[in-house]
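Structure first, sequence second, as always.
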């Protein structure tokens, strides 16, 4: 049978053909509103059903996409403001150029978040599917980083988006084209690779290893110098050191603090404590005086000349 159906939103008339009792999903070509029409078993006339109201949780998820986007941009601005020795330290511990990675990550995240938020608000089934897959990727990343608390929100979102009334809002029974699923899968894989890499970098075991690498006392052993300030320091394995410049020279004792990045120098000038960290794979050491006498220097960058 054929029926002329009027859109309840804009009044546009359209024609649909089907069997008695058959359900047709319709999209108004005039205003784009979606609905469904049930062909009557009797001769009664029907109109498309109004689409169910958007669940509050879907609106919240769309808002969280925008909030996450703003957070990513803010983080990029914050990281780009890190400069000098501290930036070198962060990158040495992280194991990758942080600013470059954050810039690439933001370039991927911005369009994904905007499109996903739009799809969720419009009730697009592909947005629901993409959200579920991305949350599964988040679960994998949380496991890789040993972040058990990070599992809570993704699991809640996955459960919520699979609830029958939520799927009804997205009209999940309409299905998704294979090409659309392929695009979603590609985006999810890219996000999983990037998030997975970050997860590995912030894994407690990795952080411990990296901190140990940039603060282990065995990296001190050797001859270090700064030609600009005309200073040379030799750290010996028996916890003694020798320091000299063009006019003076001293012997003293050195030790590392109980907290990483602490170097203590005890010599004729007194006992000085410095914040110290290695960069360039242990070939450069930066010292910043934190307390005690300044001695020959309060801040210095030393290059390793040779082992002892």
């Amino acid at each position: 049978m054929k029926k002329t159906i009027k859109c309840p939103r804009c009044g546009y008339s359209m024609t649909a053909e089907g069997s008695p009792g058959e359900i047709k999903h319709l999209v108004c070509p005039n205003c784009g509103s979606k609905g469904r029409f049930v062909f009557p078993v009797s001769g009664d006339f029907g109109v498309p059903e109004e689409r169910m109201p958007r669940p509050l949780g879907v609106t919240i998820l769309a808002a969280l996409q925008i909030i996450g986007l703003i957070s990513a941009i803010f983080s990029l601005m914050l990281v780009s403001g890190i400069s000098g020795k501290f930036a070198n330290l962060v990158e040495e511990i992280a194991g990758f150029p942080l600013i470059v990675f954050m810039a690439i990550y933001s370039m991927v995240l911005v369009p994904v978040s905007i499109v996903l938020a739009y799809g969720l608000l419009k009730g697009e089934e592909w947005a629901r599917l993409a959200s579920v897959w991305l949350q599964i990727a988040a679960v994998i990343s949380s496991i890789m980083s040993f972040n058990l608390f990070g599992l809570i929100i993704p699991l809640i979102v996955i459960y919520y988006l699979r609830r029958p009334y939520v799927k009804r809002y997205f009209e999940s029974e309409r299905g998704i084209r294979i090409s659309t699923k392929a695009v979603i899968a590609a985006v999810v894989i890219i996000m999983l690779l990037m998030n997975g890499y970050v997860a590995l970098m912030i894994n407690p075991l990795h952080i411990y290893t990296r901190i140990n690498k940039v603060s282990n006392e065995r990296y001190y052993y050797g001859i270090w110098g700064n030609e600009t300030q005309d200073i040379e320091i030799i750290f010996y394995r028996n916890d003694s050191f020798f320091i000299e410049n063009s006019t003076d020279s001293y012997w003293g004792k050195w030790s590392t603090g109980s907290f990483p990045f602490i170097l203590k120098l005890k010599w004729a000038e007194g006992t000085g404590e410095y914040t110290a960290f290695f960069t360039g794979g242990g070939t450069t050491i930066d010292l910043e005086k934190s307390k005690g006498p300044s001695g020959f220097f309060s801040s210095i960058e030393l290059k390793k000349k040779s082992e002892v």
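Margin note: The two ends are 95 Å apart (CA to CA).
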